[in-house]
Amino acid sequence: MTKPPAAFLAAAKDLLGPKGWSEDPEQLGKVATPWRGSFTGETPFLARPASTPEAAALVKLCAAHHVALTPQGGNTGLVDAGTPHGEIVVSMTRMHAIRSVDQFNNSLVIEAGAPLVTAQQAAEDAGRLFPLSLGSEGTATIGGLISTNAGGVAVLRYGMMRDLILGLEVVLPSGEIWNGLSGLRKNNTGYDLKHLFAGAEGTLGLITAATLKLFPQVQRASAWVCCSSTEDVVSLLALVRQHAGDTVTSFEIIPSGAIAMVLEDVPGTRDPLPSDLPWRVLMEVSMVDEAHARDALEKALEAAFEQDLVKDGVVAASKAQAQSFWHIRETIPLSKRAYGTSINQDIAVPVSRIPAFIESCNAAVLEVVPSAEFVIFGHVGDGNLHYSVCEPAGANAPVLKGHTPAVTRIIYDQTMAHDGSISAEHGVGRLKRDELANLRPLAATETMRAIKRAIDPLGIMNPGRVVSV
Amino acid sequence: MTKPPAAFLAAAKDLLGPKGWSEDPEQLGKVATPWRGSFTGETPFLARPASTPEAAALVKLCAAHHVALTPQGGNTGLVDAGTPHGEIVVSMTRMHAIRSVDQFNNSLVIEAGAPLVTAQQAAEDAGRLFPLSLGSEGTATIGGLISTNAGGVAVLRYGMMRDLILGLEVVLPSGEIWNGLSGLRKNNTGYDLKHLFAGAEGTLGLITAATLKLFPQVQRASAWVCCSSTEDVVSLLALVRQHAGDTVTSFEIIPSGAIAMVLEDVPGTRDPLPSDLPWRVLMEVSMVDEAHARDALEKALEAAFEQDLVKDGVVAASKAQAQSFWHIRETIPLSKRAYGTSINQDIAVPVSRIPAFIESCNAAVLEVVPSAEFVIFGHVGDGNLHYSVCEPAGANAPVLKGHTPAVTRIIYDQTMAHDGSISAEHGVGRLKRDELANLRPLAATETMRAIKRAIDPLGIMNPGRVVSV
């Protein structure tokens, strides 16, 4: 690890003030260790700017001294995008203010370092909804969520994080500030820069604030049903949307095997509706009028029973019951067997191809590891599956050991064969950069490289993530 | 106008075949004349490729010979983006096929030259909805709608055109084809190129096909109400959304003066609810269950009467009555006085600032032209107003003559003073390019220039639109 030049360090410390930087090995070690991962990065310097002008002056210093930087939010990423590998870390967590809320425009301006819950709470206080919701919402920051274009459990209805922003404030690699904090819903005045910075994982600029889109508050109706096959699950989604339209907010698939694992590993969980059938669907319809939502959901399920798409099911009678459904869904990633030693991928295919993908991918994996078990769960409505290959129940010795590269290759190839994506919501980072350079059309990778070179000619913004230049 | 080199013309004719090109002055004149505009462009050559490989080979030829091209769809643009000024024209209208429809994935793949109605019809045939809707839908093409990021009357609920695409196929300025026709809803695999080409007005590449997002079909409930002030109109929107959530699909404002003009100019129109109040709102709520939609709309209006936000109003009792409401709204642009000699701008401000903007902009215009009248209508839900300054009723001599530059300046300045945009849905083209270079933050314009140079280093793709390089 090369240390930044002394002149840079002196100027940066002077700029940031005593609270705004650290060279303490413990603190450096903390920001260099990803939340979940089998490796540790390294960084010589941690900067914690307190304002946009401070962040801009810091980036200007980096540019002048050719010092590379890695922006960091809540450090909950999964693809080695926000872990430093010799770069200085620019942590945004001191910038967490809500700058303004506009109820009539349904928007709020918030700084990049605020955790997602802050935005959710501010929306609620204003009688509105900020719909992004995911497991790490207490830690993941607005800037990180935008930079990774986060997904979560309400994408089917509200879209990804990029769809929930109206504007951005960004420090460009030159150190110039672009104030694009527009609260406008229509603004056709040139290339859409916010969509370029969203999902760029900090490689094109440092996001310092965002204008978020707010929505009307809604009431939820939830159901938990049992299905025989993934074909039935996909048909069920179409049927529910036929009855409830795009008010279907979540449509999550859970395999019965995952429920068994959760019951075993997580104290205090119970199966809402024990059944021998292989699949569960947790679905949610949300409308302003709770009676309308329940009515639409009940009519949809009635039709589903008639068409034999659903064998058993229950509509939550209370918020507590609905929460107990969600509890099962949300504790799957905590299950030791599903996540301790398993091979996990986050893939997407067109919704219509989910059954074929699962069938042929499982078969191909079983050819390599005949006793492997599978935990395949996630956002069917978005075609997004968390696909895990696990050790078999009660095995004496691990069967996956040594097979990770071969199994990963199979999952990637099967995903691509079904017109899918090997990174649905987790992103590229360093982890999938080279694999994606092979899988993406060359014309796309070359265009991305041209953009990176044009916007960050010195290559100081989170280098080596997304695309190599 | 410089003619392209003879070697280019010979090769292009050979490539495109007899049906694929024209040098006939009448045909060239037609594609060089914008739908609405006071000028005519010029072009030496019209190319009409029949397939993506043909389009790609043509662009490769253009690159080799440094021949600039202007892509053209339905030629309904309003900002001088698709009118050639010496460039060859690449008309996409021969590429109008629907390549595939996927009901379970809620997507369809369609070629760029198909008119919008083709997509709407294909969606309907599949039991789905493609929600983009605007006046020119019989002529405007998918490629043009994406390139200009079109808006229309359902943006409040469904977003702009860029929000309705899942993937694109684009011929890059090098002549390479980028096949990004993804049907995926989640695909975090690098910079989002589709959002870069959407709204780029053909300056970064030639869109040849798109994957569109389909939605569940819905039933509509419409109401026509009379309001005293724009403050009440903005409060009414919040109230209706409180009752109907994001199922409020349209929320259009119409001034009483515009109704008078339409009744005078357009045969067969009548005022649905004559009133002395200055403003009308045409609103639409759409849900799968028509009874739910009516119920939500009626409850909202009941509350609005109680809060005195609405003085008079009617919920459409039939589809025919709803259509008669929309007829008034849609014929405003046909009114001679509102559009014949008036000064028209397409602006957006945050919804909350609509009342203040209208008040101060009107006052500033009246200082210059004391007898001017105003027609201000459009998409309140999106903060998007079509702002027209008109000749006064029954005037003997035109009062606006000579004042266009001063009045336009006032509208631009007032829009910017209210954190708005001088191009909400119509785009930049050549018409607003230089004005926007002044109004946009310099950092944004410089970033756009860097992108243009990086992706189109030869400067052959619709040069001079969006940004000068």
Automatic annotation (TrEMBL), chains A, B:
InterPro entries: FAD-bd_oxidored_4_C, FAD-bd_PCMH, FAD-bd_PCMH-like_sf, FAD-bd_PCMH_sub1, FAD-bd_PCMH_sub2, FAD-linked_Oxase-like_C, FAD-oxidored/transferase_4, Oxid_FAD_bind_N
Protein name: FAD-binding oxidoreductase
Species this protein is from: Hyphomonas oceanitis SCH89
Domain FAD-binding PCMH-type: 39-217
Keywords: FAD, Flavoprotein
Family: Belongs to the FAD-binding oxidoreductase/transferase type 4 family.
UniProt feature coiled coil, ranges: none
GO molecular function, one term: FAD binding
Domain of life the protein comes from: Bacteria
Cofactor: FAD
Example GO BP: respiratory electron transport chain
